[in-house]
Amino acid sequence: MLKHNLRSKLFYNVLAPVYDHIILSTGYRAHLRRFVQGVELPTKELHVLDAGCGTGLVTFALLDKYENIKITAFDYSKDMLMAAEKFQEKENYSNVEFYLGDIESVNPLKNFNGEMKFLEEESFDYIFVSGALEYVDMEKGIRELAKYLKKDGVLINIAVRNNLCGKLIGKLMGFKPYSKEQLLNALKEAKLADIKEVPIIEKRARLCKMAVSGKKLF
Q1: Does some domain include residue 55?
Q2: CA distance 96 to 103
C-alpha cells in the first residue's frame, strides 16, 4: 500500500487544486513536458499506462504530441485525479481515462462512480511512472507494473534522485528517494532487459530527476 503520512496527505490532497500552479512556477512542469515529449515513441497506435499520474502531467504531454495513443491513467489521490479530469474537460482531451488505483496492486481500478475496471496483463506498449514509486515498495511496484507490459513493451520511470535536492523534496512531500542502483536492480528483478538511464537534457531538471527504462522481452 501507499504510505500515508501527514506530509504526503497535505501535499497531494489539500494542495491538489493549486498543485499545477506550484509546479508551473518552479518550472517543473515545463521540464517534465520537454522530457516526455523528447522520448520518441513509435508512430503506430499505442496503449500507454500512466501509473501514479497525479494531475496528468505525463498524460497530457503525450496526448499533445501523439495522435494514435490511448492512455489509461490512475492515481491513489482522488483530489489529484479530480484536478486532472477538470483540466481534461477544460482542454477537451480525449483518448484518456482516469481511475483510482494503487501501484502495488493495480487491479481493480475504480472510477469516481465506484465502477471497477480490470486491466489485462500484457496489454500496454509503454508504462510511464513519474515520482510515484518513491511512495511505495519500489521492487513490488515495478514487479506489479511489469505484468501489464506487452512483449517488447517498455517501462519508463522518472525518479527523484537520492541526493540533497531529492531528499529535501522528499522531506517536504513525504517520501524517501531510492538510489539509482536500487532502481536498476528492481528492474532486473522484474525480469526487464535493455535497462538504461534515459538522458535528461536540462541541467536544472537533472539536479533532482533521473529516468531509467527497461524492456519486457518475454
Answers
A1: yes
A2: 18
Q: How far is CA 91 from the centre of its chain?
A: 21
47 contacts 121 by C-beta, under 8 angstroms = no
Whether 132 is covered by a domain: the verdict is yes
How many other CB atoms are found less than 10 A from the CB of residue 30? 13
Checking if the pLDDT of 112 tops 50, the result is yes
Q: Judge contact between 153 and 127, C-beta under 8 A.
A: yes
The pTM of the full predicted model, rounded to 2 decimals, is: 0.91
| Residue 111, domain CATH | 3.40.50.150
Q: How confident is the model over 23-69, as pLDDT tens digits? A: 655 567 788 889 999 999 998 899 999 999 999 999 999 999 998 99
Q: What are the cell numbers at 89?
A: 474537460
Q: Which domain holds residue 93?
A: 6-215
Angle, CA of 149, 110 and 172, to the nearest 5°: 80
| Number of domains making up the chain | 1
Please report, for residues 34, 35, 95, 106, 121, the alpha-carbon distance to residue 116 in angstroms, rounded to integers and kept in the order given: 33, 32, 19, 11, 16
Specify whether the CB–CB gap between 50 and 125 falls below 8 A. no
- Other Cβ atoms less than 10 A from the Cβ of 39: the count is 17
Q: What is the mean pLDDT of residues 143-171?
A: 95
